[in-house]
UniProtKB/TrEMBL annotation:
It comes from Methanothrix soehngenii (strain ATCC 5969 / DSM 3671 / JCM 10134 / NBRC 103675 / OCM 69 / GP-6). This is Molybdenum cofactor synthesis domain protein. InterPro entries: MoaB/Mog-like_dom_sf, MoaB/Mog_dom, MoeA-like, MoeA_C_domain_IV, MoeA_C_domain_IV_sf, MoeA_linker/N, MoeA_linker/N_sf. Pathway: Cofactor biosynthesis; molybdopterin biosynthesis. GO terms for biological process: Mo-molybdopterin cofactor biosynthetic process. Residues 166-303 form the MoaB/Mog domain. SMART domains: MoCF_biosynth. One of its GO terms (molecular function) is molybdopterin molybdotransferase activity. Pfam families: MoCF_biosynth (PF00994), MoeA_C (PF03454), MoeA_N (PF03453). GO terms for cellular component: cytoplasm.
Amino acid sequence: MFKRFSGAIAARRMLLERCLPLKDIEELNTSCALDRVASEDIRSSADLPAFDRSAMDGYAVRSTDTKGARPSGPRFIPDFIPQRTGMVVPEGYDAIVMLEDARVRGEVLEVTAEAHAYKNVARAGEDVMEGDTIFTEGHRLRPPDLALISALGIDRVRVYAKPDVVIIPTGGKLVDIGARRLEPGEAYEINGLMARLYIEKWGANVRKTKIVPDDSERIREAISSNLDADMIVIIGGTSVGEKDYAPRILSEMGELYVHGVRLQPGKPTAFGDVAGRPVICLPGYPVAALSNLYLFIRPAIKRMAHLDDEPQRVQARVVRKMTSKPGYLSLVRVAFREDGQVEPIMVSGAGILSSVARADGFVVVPEELEGFEEGDMVEVVLYE
């Protein structure tokens, strides 16, 4: 059901209901699986370590030969083998005497500390045993995880595929970055760059189309030719002006669920569905686009990619009154001061990109509040 000026949280919930975790699976070299999500349990195919090994430099001995050894009453052992950390403990020996507890005297070893069975020995399978489940389905693979998997000789892992996202920037006065000098009224297309960098960071594969002019047929064609993607993001042309075609085209090609959300900045937002693919329309003002990236795109990408991490949040005290628009969810840009408190930068000004560059994060002010008072504790969502 189409909703005009939906509440921001309700709109996000509606979007996430339609951005389900992907079921596609791919097999990767273990070394290439950083931050990917395991699509099945990963089980050990071997013991780790695969043999009894020395845990430190010293001497391999039979533990019974060291019984009662002490500084005032050393034991003298004729049967010993020098060891380095990581070496295979020779068969028939079950303990390692540390260098500081022993001294070679001719052909015998003087031992001044008793070593019980398997003292300073890493037993075979002590770390991981063959058949153990080391990671379960849904686990996000970190560097130490991949090191452990590799240590077990597992060189390929099965993971969930990344979502494929297409970004379609629109606008008749946009110019590719660095293509030429701008004429009056023109602007470089930076929203697509910002969106691509964030969406890649959040766990998706991204491709960006050429700039599509404000032409309904060209926009329709751009959507149709990219329906192989898991998500389409259209930037610009989302308001209610004469050339704001995106929401209308979306309703004609598929289904429009939301057009306009009570969000500051970022009100002219729309999303819907074309051929089973979620299509999200972001406003053309960069700060408004960034707000929507965090509020809508990030959680949608994470859900599709089987990821559940949230942006980092910290508590801080606000140094002066923080205002917001009643009835709207407001994302207020803030900067940290040297004393650890935060200062509001801007609430409005959706086109002032420098306000984001100067900000460390933003504070979400709920719809039912009109801001925060000086001295209030607030939660700051840090920009990634």
